[in-house]
Every structure is written in structure tokens, then in C-alpha cells.
Amino acid sequence: MARGLMQNSSSSLTPFLANVDGQFWNSDTARYTQDFGYTYAETSGLSMAGISGVDMDDRARVSLAINRLYGSSSPSMLARKQKRMDWHVSPDRGTNWLQWHAKVTNAITNRIPDLSPQAEPRVPPLELERGAYTEWLANVRVINGALNGSFSVLFFLGSVPQDVVSWKASSNLVGTMGVFAMPRMGAENHISGTVPLTKALLKAVDQRFLGRLDQTEVTKFLQDNLQFRIVGHNSTAVDARQVRGLCVEVASSDVKMAMNEWELPSWGQVRTRFNMVC
């Protein structure tokens, strides 16, 4: 493109031909994926999506689709479900809840939390009342060719079972980050991934392992109880010290809950709270 040349939505997107007559695609004609013979779950039938009686633009419709596809277990959506069930919070109830949870201990000793997906956790009353909560994350950075093949990073709350084969089915497994790499390819790319911790923390509160979602209390709880393990492509445990470029940190962000099903939560700045290894 020549310097100083103005472009708009009808400018040709060379060299991408739209037909045999030599016409090129432009931003107007390439607006919808259906014109290329495919679509995405988030935008499929977008013009028909919506809620009866609610005037929605495309952004709201996409947000609605994202929430329905992926957001059912997020604290924001869990809070909406609780409100629909008339689980109202009063100041007295919030105080009683804190007093009840003040009796718990941060140490996981003779038992482990049940993080299995069957039961949905409750959003604590104080977070529900103020319409905001803190999202907690385990961030992983690593070189994808560090182990000459694919491997996984698994996170647990509490003690880790001795049998490696049982790790992925363990009831206290928080989540897994998979790293894909081909053997003998010599890949040296730095990659990153995230394992959400918040839902596991909500279940820990429900089961009295954790008193409340206070930042100081959660930080100490995770420092004491969050563990990770690495499994190589041959299903054997790998010492983290053997994984080049590995860095695991715990971070958090203040999140404002969505007020409606067609809105997305609003995240604040993500801040590192502590490093597990780096």
C-alpha cells in the first residue's frame, strides 16, 4: 500500500479473491463468517439470539452466548443463580455467616476438599451483596520443549495422592494446564497458561476449609495448601526442577459481577500475590 493512501471498509483486501471475476474481498463483504462457509458457536444465529422483551445489540448477543456456553460455573453466573432462587442477604445473615466460618482452620490435615464438579458452590453473602469478588489464578510460564514431548501441570488443594495414575481423577484436583510439544523437535518457545482457582476456593469455603475470601486469608491458605505436580507424556511424575523455564505464580484480580445475563464481568488489574516456583 502506497504511503498516504486512505483505506476504508470497501478497500480491496488483496490478494484474497472473492470470485472468478477478479474481485477482491473487502471489509464489508467479509463481515460475516457464513460467507466463507463456517461460523462460531458464539456467533451462530446471532441475529436470532436474545431474550424476549430485551432490546439487545450484537455485543450483548455475543456476551449472552459466551455466558451460556462457558460461564455457567463462573462466580458471576453462580451469583445470578442464587439471586434467582431468592437467596437474599441481610446484614445479620452476613454477620452470622462470618461468625460461623470464623471457627474453621486454614490447615488441611486429615481430609481434603472435594472439588468434584457435581455440586455447585455458593457465592459468599458479602460478595453477593456488594456485587464483586476476587478472582484467583495460577499462572504458568514454561518452555514447551522443556521435556522433549507433551506434559501437564496439575494443581491440587491439600495432599497429593501417591499414585500418579490417580492424579487426574483425584477429588482435590483444582485444574490442569496441558503443554503440547512434539518429541525431538527442539522447541524453545515460551508459552503460558492459566488455571482458575476461584471455584475451588468457593468449595473450600463451603466445606469449612477456608473461612472467607479475604485476600490475606486466601493468600495464606493457598501458600499452605496449593500444590502442583508435573506429568510427562509417558504418564510419569517429573521433578519441577527438571523443567526448563518453569514459572508458577498465583495472582488475583478484583472482578465486578455482571448485572445481567447479556453482560460480561468486568476485570480489574491482575496482580501477582506470590510465586510457587520461578
UniProtKB/TrEMBL annotation:
Keywords: Monooxygenase, Oxidoreductase
Tyrosinase C-terminal domain location: 135-250
InterPro entries linked: Di-copper_centre_dom_sf, Tyrosinase_C
Any Pfam family matching the protein: Tyrosinase_C
One MF term in the entry's GO annotations: monooxygenase activity
Top-rank lineage group of the source organism: Eukaryota
Cofactor dependence: Cu(2+)
Name of the protein this chain belongs to: Polyphenol oxidase
